[in-house]
TrEMBL record, chains A, B:
Name listed for the protein in its UniProt record: Protein ntm1-like 9
Primary gene name: NTL9_1
Native source organism of the sequence: Quercus suber (Cork oak)
Source lineage: Eukaryota, Viridiplantae, Streptophyta, Embryophyta, Tracheophyta
Example GO biological process: regulation of DNA-templated transcription
Cellular-component GO terms for this entry: membrane; nucleus
Spans annotated as Disordered: 78-97
Source organism, top-level taxon: Eukaryota
Length: 150, 150
């Protein structure tokens, strides 16, 4: 990365690892250490929009069809223990099990995958839109009640 | 990409699309249009080495455990219609079916996935090492008998 010519190579782009997303973006954002890097990712309420409207908010060119955002898990989305991720026309439905994000042998975060369905739960029609939602682990969140995810 | 600050973002790295690998690297290489970009990827005979020795040849830092090389499909690896991809200690075994790489509605190349097995075919023990081998389509290769793949 100390070679400036590298940056002009075709194929050089924003393609962060899970670990970077947690350590370099999510943690600074949550702890009030916003900086020129974290400010590159827009903060939006994912559920206020339909998935096809989201790319217009992104400010970093990425690979294929992939975009990055912060979104607050506001209290109004909570319903008992589960979170309501409904949009006007559909909803984001979790799929599979959450995966641990490890760094130096420790769990630093979790990653959940959600698929957009048109309609209303428990019905609804699956689509090709997918979100990978990142969160920090409970131990970390405990000190910082504001939760932010991608 | 015209914003220089982007390049200093954590997570900015070499992460080419399939289309870029074919159009910006493989085609120039095959057609004698080697340039400062293509010269970044080492040319090695993949089968002269074991997979755990390959990373030391790479000259571009990439995401996780991913490296890029050119390798010639030399005639001596050909055995009838199939290619012999044996190393000293094992062999690269194709898995699944080859995938088309599209650009502007046209097939510009193919992608084959191979898994390294320790031992000798048809026996051998599967490992976690995987190669994605890119080649241009026949129409293109016809003009340029030298074949190069990643």
């Amino acid at each position: 990365m100390d070679d400036p010519d590298l940056h002009s190579l075709p194929g050089f782009r924003f393609s962060p690892t899970d670990e970077e997303l947690i350590d370099d973006y999510l943690k600074p954002k949550i702890t009030g250490n916003d900086n020129k890097n974290t400010r590159r990712l827009p903060v939006i309420d994912i559920c206020k929009y339909e998935p096809w409207d989201l790319p217009s908010f992104a400010r970093i060119p990425t690979k294929d069809k992939e975009w990055y955002y912060f979104t607050e898990q506001s209290l109004r989305h909570k319903k008992g223990n589960s979170k309501n991720r409904s949009t006007e026309k559909g909803f984001w439905k979790p799929t599979g099990t959450d995966r641990k994000i490890m760094s130096g042998g420790k769990v630093i975060g979790m990653k959940k995958t959600l698929v957009y369905h048109l309609g209303r739960s428990p019905k609804g029609e699956g689509t090709k839109y997918v979100i990978h939602e990142y969160r920090t682990t409970k131990e970390f969140d405990g000190k910082h009640p504001g939760q932010v995810g991608f």
